[in-house]
Task: inverse folding
């Protein structure tokens, strides 16, 4: 084993990697577009890593005690493991060199696809808004350590005088998150590949030890997630098997297993029994484990008391009390860390010059959370008196938050308290379907898009100029109307049936509404990574929510005036607004969901009054917030589905309600999708090749459905034949009279050339399938 070094008394499980000014995003996209070289990109990434290490030392973490996590990724941490352990799908075999190694251009190709080769499927990372690339494995999958990134980054840090802690997706979680590759048996369980995979991890341990790494962190969040195909018992048995082999490696770093995003609970004993040197547990979503009868005398407990998943300031007194109780577990040591990686929060409040000064005192971003960890570690080591001033300051700020104007609004609370069952129900679905068919007069297999069209440089420049005061509001709004007119004309020319206005006026599908609703605040630089180079700026829901004025009506009304075809009104649903914001932690989620639901209900009613016949309320995050523990599912599904129904139940029978779902595995919430009671549900399905549809059919779903046939997360233009094949798969599971044809998601991130080509192919393929169905 490498030279023993205690697990650091203060650490974080991971750190943002996009750069405090999104340097990585810009460098990656510049490389993709051919504007800069691969060398430019790698130099930018190396500098970001160096800046992160230096900054974490400035914030109080140790330079040479492995407290700094080496958690950088060019795109995704699961893709990093796929590349490192030789798990690249066979269709990308030509990208590998003679040793089976994937270079950086090939790495990006696996993520984004190329030509006829579709990229890896992308889905939600546990209950976060981050998305990972799903490994594709089969019974014959083989593994070996071919990638060098983990060792290279450790050595890079070492050369600069830092001793860091490599962070790697653990072997059990890697397999538990994988899917069966095409052609694998239907009942194939990727966990059966554990004996084949673990030797590659042994090789990694040996190489890290040779480099001098004292610690490695294996992330095993699968252990807290009861929504996976593998059972808890299967996962515990896998952990026992994998780590018995890993710990037996003669020359290795010490191993820390991190189990973020929930409580370890009954799996804690299994993890402790492995004998790993440290266990990092989430004490924000989870609680202190029962250590009765468990020998922890050789184990450090890294107590994740600082929330890595949200941005609220910690009550240091309460957190210190948890740490003090943790010392009663009988562990060799108790140290302080974050509940999850800090990749889910922005870099620093110092970048928020325009955020309300009082609100800022209630918040903590990544830098502030790191300081909280360091403070608590000092308090644990030296006693409460050593940090008393900081403890008092945190309590005072939180007391002010509790009584601040707008946090508790009597009228808003009264409105949600007065809701009854009738506020959540609509007329019979068949009655609605008949009335809507008469009003909309659509062809079989109607075509539409999900909402947004490409956000061009001209749109962004106009928005920025308006924000700086360089473009008057009148000029900005005219530019947006001009863009809307072009989008409507384009859709007419392409032959789409139900149109959208393109959302040119929206900076983001959540932030746009957050800026128009009371109870929210927006940041200037609060960026977090969503996937790859895609970054979002979550808004902050700090108080009770209400709608002071209509938000979308004039734009929808203008778009509808330009065409005789129906134009959808476009709203973001309550659950997604919550999931893609930092939501307050001082009231039940149900209360917040109903507040947003009532605000959106007023907007839906105003759209209907303006003559909009189809209204889409997007809920892509419905599956995302599903609790990781099954005991919490029923309550979540009740309030989440209820808030959507509250938003949409006040319309006439002939107004068609759409919703959209994406980015997730939806099999576990099929009943909830049905219970939304939308007239049409569009759902991401292209990468998974319609695998959701048989499940919908088995669940008895009997309303309109639009499975995505165009994967917008890749720059590929799908051919007519490819789209037609997907539609032909769809009609095997869905009554053709209920089927719609649409892309997987909005088109905001795509360019116009690829968008127009793809939509033209979509319409052509749809017409071909219509003809097939008419002749059948």
Result:
């Amino acid at each position: 084993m490498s030279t023993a070094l205690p697990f650091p008394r203060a650490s974080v499980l991971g750190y943002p990697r996009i750069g405090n000014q999104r340097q990585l995003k810009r460098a990656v996209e510049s490389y993709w577009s051919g504007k800069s070289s691969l060398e430019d990109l790698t130099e930018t990434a190396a500098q970001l890593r160096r800046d992160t290490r230096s900054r974490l030392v400035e914030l109080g973490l140790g330079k040479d005690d492995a407290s700094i996590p080496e958690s950088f990724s060019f795109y995704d941490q699961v893709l990093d493991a796929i590349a490192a352990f030789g798990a690249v799908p066979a269709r990308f075999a030509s990208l590998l060199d003679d040793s089976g190694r994937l270079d950086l251009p090939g790495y990006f190709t696996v993520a984004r696809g190329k030509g006829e080769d579709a990229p890896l499927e992308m889905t939600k990372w546990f209950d976060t808004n981050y998305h990972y690339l799903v490994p594709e494995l089969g019974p014959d999958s083989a593994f070996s350590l071919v990638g060098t990134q983990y060792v290279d980054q450790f050595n890079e840090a070492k050369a600069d005088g830092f001793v860091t802690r490599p962070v790697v997706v653990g072997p059990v979680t890697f397999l538990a998150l994988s899917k069966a590759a095409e052609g694998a048996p239907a009942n194939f369980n990727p966990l059966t590949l554990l004996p084949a995979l673990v030797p590659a991890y042994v090789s990694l341990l040996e190489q890290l030890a040779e480099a001098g790494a004292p610690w490695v962190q294996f992330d095993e969040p699968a252990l807290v997630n009861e929504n996976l195909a593998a059972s808890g018992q299967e996962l515990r048995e896998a952990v026992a098997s994998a780590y018995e082999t890993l710990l037996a490696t003669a020359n290795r770093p010490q191993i820390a297993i991190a189990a973020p995003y929930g409580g370890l609970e009954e799996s804690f004993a299994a993890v402790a029994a492995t004998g790993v040197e440290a266990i990092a547990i989430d004490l924000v979503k989870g609680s202190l484990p029962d250590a009765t009868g468990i020998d922890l005398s050789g184990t450090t407990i890294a107590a994740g008391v600082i929330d890595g998943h949200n941005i609220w300031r910690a009550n240091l007194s309460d957190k210190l009390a948890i740490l003090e109780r943790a010392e009663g577990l009988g562990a060799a040591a108790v140290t302080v860390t974050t509940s999850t990686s800090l990749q889910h929060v922005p870099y620093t409040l110092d970048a928020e010059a325009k955020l309300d000064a009082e609100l800022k005192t209630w918040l903590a971003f990544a830098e502030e959370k790191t300081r909280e960890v360091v403070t608590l570690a000092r308090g644990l080591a030296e006693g409460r008196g050593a940090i008393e001033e900081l403890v008092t300051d945190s309590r005072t700020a939180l007391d002010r938050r509790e009584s601040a104007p707008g946090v508790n609004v009597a009228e808003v609370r009264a409105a949600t308290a007065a809701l009854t069952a009738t506020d959540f129900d609509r007329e019979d679905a068949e009655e609605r379907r008949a009335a809507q068919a008469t009003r909309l007069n659509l062809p079989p297999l109607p075509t539409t898009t999900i909402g947004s069209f490409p956000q061009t440089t001209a749109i962004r420049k106009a928005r920025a100029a308006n924000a700086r005061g360089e473009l008057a509001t009148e000029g900005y709004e005219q530019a947006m109307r001009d863009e809307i007119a072009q989008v409507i004309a384009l859709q007419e020319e392409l032959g789409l049936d139900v149109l959208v206005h393109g959302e040119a006026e929206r900076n983001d599908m959540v932030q746009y509404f957050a800026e128009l609703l009371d109870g929210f605040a927006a940041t200037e630089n609060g960026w977090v990574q969503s996937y790859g180079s895609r970054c979002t700026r979550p808004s902050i829901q700090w108080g009770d929510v209400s709608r002071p004025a209509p938000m979308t009506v004039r734009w929808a009304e203008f778009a509808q005036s330009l065409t005789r075809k129906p134009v959808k009104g476009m709203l973001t649903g309550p659950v997604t607004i919550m999931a893609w914001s930092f939501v307050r932690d001082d009231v039940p989620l149900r209360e917040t969901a109903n507040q947003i639901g009532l605000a959106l209900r007023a907007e839906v009613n105003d759209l209907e009054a303006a003559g909009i016949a189809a209204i889409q309320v997007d809920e892509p995050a419905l599956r995302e917030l599903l609790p990781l523990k099954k005991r919490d599912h029923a309550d979540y599904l009740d309030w989440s589905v209820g808030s959507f129904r509250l938003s949409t139940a006040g319309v006439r029978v002939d107004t068609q309600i759409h919703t959209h779902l994406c980015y997730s595995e939806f099999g576990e919430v099929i009943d909830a999708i049905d219970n939304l009671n939308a007239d049409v549900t569009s759902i991401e399905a292209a990468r998974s090749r319609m695998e959701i549809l048989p499940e919908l059919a088995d669940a008895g779903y009997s309303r309109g459905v639009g499975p995505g046939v165009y994967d917008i997360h890749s720059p590929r233009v799908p051919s007519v034949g490819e789209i037609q094949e997907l539609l032909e798969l769809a009609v095997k599971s869905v009554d053709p009279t209920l089927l719609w044809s649409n892309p997987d998601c909005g088109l905001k991130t795509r360019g116009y050339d690829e968008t127009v080509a793809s939509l033209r192919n979509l319409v052509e393929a749809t017409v071909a399938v219509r003809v097939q169905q008419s002749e059948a």
Summary: The chain has 26 helices and 21 strands.
